[in-house]
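Sequence only, no structure available. Ideas?
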Amino acid sequence: MARQVFFSFQYEPDNWRVSTVRNIGAIEGNKACSDNDWETVTGGGDGAIRRWINDQMHGRSTTVVLIGANTADRKWINYEIAKTWDDYKALVGIHIHNLKDRDGEKSRKGRNPFDYVSLDNGKKLSEIVKVYDPPYTDSKAVYNFIADNIEDWIEQAQTRKRRGAA
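Reply:
I predicted one. Tokens follow.
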């Protein structure tokens, strides 16, 4: 049975790349939010956004942060990472910059979002959470690399979390 995960990502410009990862089928992710749904959620302010995220994360064992060019240090990405950690769920990051978007374009590699979330002792989560960067520039090779490994990465994140690390 596929593991239930929450995908954390910057909607624009990465929603196409994220849909590509979701279509791998090895895992079950949170339901994609349409542009209209997201406008409704954001129109309700920070409280509505926080409730929506919390609802989406409910029942998920792992958060997979799909890292695009501008994912790092965004308010809601940081919230999702911190909430995952505080809820004692597993975290893993995957760079997706070399996957093509709907226009066939790739993006630049983004910074590590775990550099922007710290524990109470000041240690950054980037010192604990594993981030994978597929070693290819060809979009199909990147897709295949993620497809071949994502289940193992999620299971390894679960194992690290049970041992007290992410």
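Residues 4-162 form a domain with the Rossmann fold fold (CATH 3.40.50.450).
Hope that gets you unstuck.
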